Amino acid sequence: MLDAKSPDGTPMFTAEKAVCPVHAPKDHPKIPPAKVGILLANLGTPDGYDYWSMRRYLNEFLSDRRVIDYSPWIWQPLLQLVILTKRPFSSGANYKSIWNHELNESPLATITKSQTAKIAETMKARYGDDVVVDYCMRYGNPSTRAKVRALIEAGCQKILFFPLYPQYAGATSATACDQFFRVLTEEKWQPPVRTVPAYFDDPVYIDALAQSVERAYAGLDHEPDLLITSYHGVPQRYLMEGDPYHCQCQKTTRLLKERLGWADDRIMTTFQSRFGPEEWLQPYTVEEVKRQAEAGKKKIAVIAPAFSADCIETLEEINEEIRESFEEGGGERFTYIPCLNDDDAHIAALSRVIERNLKGWLD
Asked: What is the helix (H) or strand (E) element at residue 104, kind and residue range?
């Protein structure tokens, strides 16, 4: 029997015993019944916040040419001899401040597991035992390689690969797909595959975002002067080279504003997580919140539509570093609106996206 467990450790599916195909000779390799695999993919997480766990994770992440595209002859000596000597300490401290100590894992891991389990329940109700749902990380564990192998061993003869990034970027969606296709080159029997495109303007995603804003505002005893939609930044150069990320972020904000029925001056787009010396997409969130506070916007809310799950960039960077910058500028009321995470509206939206992309395979 091929047994798989859900992210919380309980059985998720049990594939029937593999059998020899009809009319095949008795010594033919046994094959499990055919299924469709759904593989969710997120950015990644270190195994721990200690120095060596952080160094392994950062080395894999920062060695990706999709993330840092400088010449390896220049970048790798700097990375190995300088950055990876110091940064694991500071990054480890940041992770420690938001770590899920009860489960000994990062919040991103905890949330992604929960998302996977809930989507698996939805898919089982819709398609029965014809699908297998699992998740992987682009960097760290569980690896894309391990999860693709597990799906194929479970009998998945078709795989739908779903990078959990609403907006497409070369440094997120593309590198996740790169790794997925790279792993497939190792398979003797390579399954037909599909990849889910960016869903930045999908009405079900926009509605889930809007619901989260409405719930957050309803729970406040004040009306924020401004909602800042903070997206992970990329170098400005990427936009000039054809990456659609900036445009898709702007459209998400516009559609969210329209769904909420707001005027233009109640919401704005910014970009966070700048790294390195070159110019990145602007305005920078950490600078803009301070400028807004100095200009009289004393009550703001911040939401991060580019992240499908709360992680170091939201729980530490937004809720600590960016909050502090706002308060330094004279800001008084700072509200962070959590990512959609495993909220029911988000699970329903992701499931709808999956169902559309399964058309023709499962109807």
From this structure: none
Q: CA of 260: how far to CAs of 4, 173, 202, 212, 254, in Å?
A: 42, 28, 15, 11, 10
Question: Residue 71: beta bridge partners?
Answer: none
The CATH number of the structural domain formed by 2-198 is 3.40.50.1400
What percent of the chain lies above the pLDDT cut of 90?
88
CA dist., res. 212 & res. 33, Å (int): 41
Which numeric CATH code is attached to 203-337?
3.40.50.1400
- Quick one: average pLDDT of 323-340? 97
Length of the chain: 363
Measured distance CA(48)–CA(109) in Å, rounded: 11
Query: Can you tell me whether residue 133 is helix, strand or coil?
Result: strand
Same topology for domains 2-198 and 203-337, yes or no?
yes
**β-bridge pairing 131-140 and 156-163:** unpaired
Do 291 and 297 meet the contact criterion of CB atoms below 8 Å apart? no
Residue 19: predicted pLDDT: 61
Is the dihedral angle over the CA atoms 243, 246, 252, 254 positive or is it negative? negative
Dihedral sign for Cα atoms in the order 158, 163, 167, 172:
negative
Owner of token pair 């406040």:
220
pLDDT digits (tens, 9 = 90+) for 219-232: 999 999 999 999 99
Task: Dig out the tokens for 336 from the structure.
Answer: 């962070």
User: What totals of helices (H) and strands (E) does the chain contain, helices first?
Assistant: 12, 10
Bridge partners of 42? 137
The radius of gyration computed from the CA coordinates of the chain, to the nearest angstrom, equals 22
Distance CA 81, CA 167 (A): 34
Residue range 106-153, pLDDT digits in tens? 999 999 999 999 999 999 999 999 999 999 999 999 999 999 999 999
CB 151 within 8 A of CB 132: yes
Domain map (residue ranges) of the chain: 2-198, 203-337
Rounded to whole angstroms, the Cα distance separating 13 from 216 reads: 36
Q: How far apart are CA 87 and CA 54, in angstroms?
A: 8
**CA 300, 306, 311, 316: dihedral to nearest 10 degrees?**
-30
